[in-house]
């Protein structure tokens, strides 16, 4: 039975490599138009031996990514990458880079968000040299290391398309700018829990898969159900990878000694100014200020990335996240939707927040 309602067209961002012949790009756009695709933006990226054309298209309802790839191949082209897009992808690259640089200089600690914007990366983390893990097994061109002057390494990943030299040059220039301007590079943050235990809040990464898997085994079924809204005890490996390297998002972990005791995520949604967040705190570490500190860190990350709203979905009987947001000093609004509570959090700029009973401090520098 055919649906009666209208389906919203999807917007896709494609990178296409064409033969260097007159009219090749025009033929591709004509063929896309024949498939009821509306070309919204077009840019040319120089690469060794030629160029890559980046096209943002609004596809007709029901048109799959494979259909777009087939249309490109029919004109002798090769699709080197395809991913979902939104209105923010319609800003030309130099403008986006300038905005990202300005935001990074104005807002201390937002360098990762700025680099993620410049690189159109899935994830960007800053780690001490030697702790970034072995990336040799990853797809060539889909990850990059960039060194900073103060002994840190920027690790960027992008699954949908390899990085180009032009993008890497922009990222390196942004790092140089931040170094020259004195803007602090994001570092792990120390906190003291309500009962005096020392923890570190830091970006999560692939090297944390075993620790995060162990975190889930220590959580009660109630805690896991509150987080995932389903009965589960262990996570498939592919879930662990997405938890720690989420496409278009960031993960923050709380670590005590050699154990990860809490995990938080902020994930970009289809709404340009909105992101979804989630928290998981081990039972033994609940009510000790860890969740509040983690939510503050996620709010700072989201604000630096330009989000105006954070959305979380809770079971109707669970009000823990509402109380956590209140302790973090964040404005919230709650409404019932589809049998769940939709919690809207405003990551408003505020002075450095110190959760009750917790003391944050910078490791390796102040901010």
UniProtKB/TrEMBL annotation:
Keywords of the record, alphabetical order, are: Acyltransferase, Transferase
The record ties this protein, via InterPro entries, to:
ACT-like_dom_sf, ACT_dom, Acyl_CoA_acyltransferase, Bact_Acetyltransf, GNAT_dom
Disordered, as annotated region: 346-367
Q: Where does the record place the ACT domain? A: 13-90
N-acetyltransferase domain: which residues? 199-348
Enzyme Commission code(s) on record: 2.3.1.-
Specify the signal sequence span. Answer: none
Recorded GO molecular functions are: acyltransferase activity, transferring groups other than amino-acyl groups
Protein name (record): GNAT family N-acetyltransferase
């Amino acid at each position: 039975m055919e649906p009666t309602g209208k389906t919203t067209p999807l917007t896709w961002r494609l990178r296409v490599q064409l033969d260097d012949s007159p009219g090749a790009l025009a033929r591709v756009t004509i063929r896309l138009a024949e498939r009821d695709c509306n070309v919204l933006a077009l840019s040319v990226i120089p690469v060794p031996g030629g160029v890559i054309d980046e096209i943002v298209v609004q596809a007709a309802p029901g048109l799959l990514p494979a259909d777009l790839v087939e249309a490109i191949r029919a004109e002798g082209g090769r699709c080197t990458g395809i991913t979902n897009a939104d209105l923010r992808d319609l800003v030309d690259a130099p403008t986006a880079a300038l905005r990202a640089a300005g935001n990074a200089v104005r807002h201390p600690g937002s360098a990762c968000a700025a680099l993620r914007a410049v690189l159109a990366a899935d994830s960007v983390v800053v780690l001490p040299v030697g702790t970034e893990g072995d990336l040799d097994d990853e797809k060539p061109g889909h990850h990059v290391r960039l060194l900073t002057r103060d002994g840190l390494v920027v690790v960027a990943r992008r699954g949908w398309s390899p990085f180009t030299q032009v993008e890497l040059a922009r990222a390196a220039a942004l790092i140089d700018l931040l170094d020259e301007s004195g803007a602090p590079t994001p570092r792990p943050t120390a906190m003291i829990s309500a009962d005096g235990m020392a923890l570190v809040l830091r970006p999560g990464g692939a090297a944390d898969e075993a620790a995060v898997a162990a975190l889930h085994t220590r959580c009660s079924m109630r805690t896991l159900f509150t987080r995932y809204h389903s009965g589960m005890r262990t996570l498939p490996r592919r879930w662990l990878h997405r938890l720690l390297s989420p496409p278009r998002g960031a993960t923050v972990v709380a670590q005590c000694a050699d154990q990860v005791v809490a995990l938080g995520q902020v994930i970009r949604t289809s709404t340009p100014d909105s992101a979804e967040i989630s928290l998981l705190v081990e039972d033994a570490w609940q009510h000790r200020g860890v969740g509040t500190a983690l939510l503050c860190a996620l709010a700072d990350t989201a604000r630096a990335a330009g989000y105006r709203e954070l959305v979380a979905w809770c079971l109707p009987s669970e009000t823990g996240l509402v109380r956590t947001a209140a302790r973090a000093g964040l404005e919230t609004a709650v409404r019932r939707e589809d049998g769940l509570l939709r919690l809207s959090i405003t990551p408003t700029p505020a002075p450095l927040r110190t959760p009750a009973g917790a003391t944050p401090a910078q490791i390796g520098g102040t901010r």
